[in-house]
Queue: 3 jobs
Job 1
Amino acid sequence: MLNKISKIHVFTIAISSFLTACGDGGDNTQSSNFTPTTISGTAVDFYLKNADIKFDDCENTSIKTDANGHFSFTTTAACSESALTITGGIDIGTNLPFTGTLKFKKMDLKNLKNGTLVVSPLTSLEYFLEKAGQSNQLNTILKNLALNNINNISQFDPAKDGDAHTMAVVFIFQQLATQIEDRLQTINKDNGSTVFTQEQAAQITFDALISQLSTQPLFTAGSAKIDSEVLKSIVNKAIEIAKAQMNDPNNTIDPTFTDQVSSNIIAVSTAIDSIAQNGGTGANLLAELQKNPSLLETITETLKSPVYSDFFLANYDIAAIKASSETHPLHINSKNLSDTLAVQFKLANAKSELDDTVTLAFKLNGGNSAYHENLNIIFNNIQVKFNNQGSIVSAKILKNTVINVSSSSRKIQQLQFSVPEDTVISSNGKIFLNDLIPINSYINTLPIGSLVQVTVYIIPSAYTINPQLNLSQEKITIGNLTLKGSALTAYFKLS
């Protein structure tokens, strides 16, 4: 599993879904002298369709961009001043989910120039600078981004108003922010919950960007090629801030964090710069990118984050598992029921050898109309190595790792024991956990013909689970230990 996919940000969103009111729309929200104003907006990171636009200072008020990335709204007496946050949606330039965050600082919306606004990576920068009380650093950072001729950020559309170099710079800036945010959101607590919310990840990311770009340029002179040393200093600063905020040695950060973000952004900036060097407008750069599918594919593939996919349980793939039910169970021999503790998955978009620490948990509820037994197990601290194709190379549980077991069976009931030594639990790309606990004591209690419902919980540390797998988020509790993870349920009939 996964929680989230990488981001690619397309560069302009124009204007056209409709919000009739930011309050409840009734007469009691309108003061007698209030005149509603319709505002048109553009969200920039290439065009975002179906993105969520939240009015931060207007309770429960949000709208979406339309299929072309346009949005509009009408102010009310209850909602005429607000900051904006844009998340979600699909980048129509790359057809990838937008997983980043765009911000627009709190403004008097009814008095915007021309009734229009542009929400972009630059307005995000302005938002976080103001929040940090460092608005006076804006011009310095814009200069260090080689963006010296922007008079009004809230009205500036890089695709329409900027040249090719400007658009390339803003695009790469957003990709860098998104890459850092994505990886910060893969850090999990021991109980499987994420350490940082999307809002917190964005705050840490821009704190790091502001810290470093206040004193040094991000790009090499005259190009959109990123300075590799400055890039690494930004990522390392984000990690430093994250560690300070976590203040918990048990919450680990992937040691390849910096190298992965750096290599991805360097590759993307080199590719974009190759087009930007041809000159022209921001629109020209976008057009040239769309006319070069091989280059566009290189960029999109580079920016994809590793995600968990291709899940198997007891040799059944995810499609068969999801299709199973109480009335249409999968058939399994009782001798093979222990294979329900054998799992296999892959990391899509791996690109290189990768490591992760995974928690796996299982709930087995089996029996017939006259008899029923359950078995719950939590396996922490599973160290998994993947090759550059994303397949499992090896997996082991480290010495002294605690395994928690509970069961209604009198032969098991509740157990908690430590692994006496580092134990290899993988073979041929699969993880086998059935030898670590007395599962046969449970299986032998179930009569032939029993229906067994098996739910597996997957809680990775460094990488997310592909949201396209549509796994639910569920909890499992054994004693005082409660974990929450992506869950998948299968139904088996013993034969």
Note: Confidence is low (pLDDT under 50) at residues 1-30.
Job 2
Amino acid sequence: MTTTWLDEVFIVRKPVIAMLHLAALPGDPGYDSAAGIAAVVARAREELDALQSGGVDGVMISNEFSLPYLTKTEPITAITMARIIGELLPEIAVPFGVNVLWDGRASIDLAVATGASFVREIFTGVYASDFGLWNTNVGETARHRARVGGSHVKLFFNIVPESATYLAARDLASITRTTVFATLPDAICVSGATAGAPTDSQAVRVVKEAAGSVPVFVNTGVRAENVATQLDLADGAIVGTYFKEDGVFENRAKRSRVEELMTQAREFRKQLA
């Protein structure tokens, strides 16, 4: 069996990456300035423990509660995330990535600064979105990664972005093929409409067939009852909402829910040759 970068980073086949959603940060409308950054760190530490003790294969740290999102973030966001991750680093025991929503360049900067192995972002395309007209510049972003010494940072391209529609009239297979050929993603993510929303299985099949050797991840809507089905289609999964108490986006990660899904994932992986 050919070894891929996924095998080298995660050890296991078909890894499940857990989202570690940071509470609102300074500059965000929802930031609790009275409780301060210490409260954000405390919550992140609690959830990191629940995710790791529950058995996830990796974590991705994001500013998920920086609603409404910016497509070019203010410096305070990545700076604060770097401070928080720095405090958590001694306790991070699994491969980790970062995601500064929705800013690919800031995500790469944060990964280089903290030693993260991967980032996930919208690196390609032009979209009509809930955040306005959303444009990207993957060539500039790729060159920026090289300039800041981030060539080792793997890039997860989300080609079905949440809360947005691709402006060009192109089918998903064509988008996948040209993304792979022209923009050199390390992995491709396929999403539903929002965080926690189901990812269409047929969309995963289409992307997987068109992506060639590039790994494909299910990015939203993975649950204990469907994780085996989704991992059968894809090369891995990214899970956020399901791991939270009662499966509610705003709640904190709960160890028992993590264990429930990861048990099903491990049972599925036993069947792999």
Note: Residues 13-269 form a domain with the TIM Barrel fold (CATH 3.20.20.70).
Job 3
Amino acid sequence: MFALANWQLQRGLDKAQRMQSIDSASNSASYSLETLLARNQDIQDLPISFSGSINPQHVFLLDNRIKQGRPGFDVYVIAQSDTHYVLVNFGWVAGKQMRDDLPEVSLPDRLNDAQGRIVLPSDNPMVTETATHDALWPKVIQQIDIQFIEQVLHAEVLPFVITLTQSNEQFIRDWQPVVMPPEKHYAYAVQWLGLGIAAFFVYFFALRARLRSGLKKGSHEQDE
């Protein structure tokens, strides 16, 4: 429990540091893709202005995305700049009543100076990918797995995502880099710490009572 309290505390500190980094990045001008690739520093959450062509037929739908209690998908497409392939998140669309009836989206053939943010996808080992390498599109995926996407497209893809942030009538783009605020992690840390302290005192008093019982039993045996 003490270890979990420390883990939640560190998570809160990391979130606070990231929010400060996002605030700082928000005050800077958008970077080009080439400028970001040339940076030796962390590019997570940095603003980007991107231009490139896309294939609107090759759409990835990230499953189990909930907005305001409604199930839906995040729409991802590979975009090609002059030198690189990169995955672009166009935003959220609602799902239909029948799960097998996938939403239809209208995508342009090209992005020109599209505004977005850099997002580094995380791997969840508990999630099992169900999409296949067949020729059927769109593909419903369970998480952003760059290696899987490279295998499907037979192309090398940059290890991050450009999440578009400009308002759009077709997609919901409420970019939330920090879903759980640091304060909630701190609250969880206090809860785990309190449980740990309570468990420690329960153990302490139970052990003391057991030792006293043993001493009294030994004293009676000596008297007999």
Note: Strands lie at 47-67, 70-80, 85-94, 110-119, 139-141, 157-164.
